[in-house]
Design brief:
Layout lengths: L5 H5 L1 E6 L3 H9 L5 E6 L8 H4 L4 E5 L8 H11 L5 E5 L3 H9 L4 E3 L1 H14 L5
Parallel strand pairs: 1-2, 1-3, 3-4, 4-5
């Protein structure tokens, strides 16, 4: 396993798990130049658990049940990988949100609200270089 450099650890990256290209484009439009938006529909696309740790937070689309199971994502993160990465969910109905709360997802927003709140997350996680 190659160990990440300090520079790699300090990079400002976040994950968006969605298959919805329109919302992904909206997130990328609101992403500052010093940040990188990494999109995926499978945690395996991000690499091993220690590579997931190089991201500052994750935006998880609860409406994408055809592309991936959001409950599987949060269970893998919290139980298998034991990662306490910030997981901010958007979309979904009350039933899936309740299940995600039990599985330890952090916060829940509507689709438009998530786009509006994104600058707040960039400020909150803007530590480092």
């Amino acid at each position: 396993m190659a160990e990440p450099t300090i520079a790699t650890r300090m990079m400002r990256k976040y994950i968006v798990m969605t298959g919805d290209q329109a919302i992904l484009d909206r997130f990328k439009t609101h992403t500052p130049a010093e940040w990188t938006c990494v999109s995926a529909t499978d945690l395996d696309q991000l690499g091993e658990w220690h590579e997931v740790l190089l991201h500052r937070f994750l935006l998880l689309d609860l409406d994408e049940i055809d592309a991936f199971d959001p409950l599987d994502v949060i269970r893998i993160l919290r139980q298998q990988y034991q990662i306490n990465l910030g997981v901010f969910c958007f979309g979904g109905d009350e039933a899936i949100q309740d299940e995600m709360r039990i599985a330890r997802a952090d916060r829940f927003f509507g689709r438009d609200e998530m786009v509006e709140r994104l600058p707040e997350f960039f400020r909150q996680y803007d530590w480092g270089e």
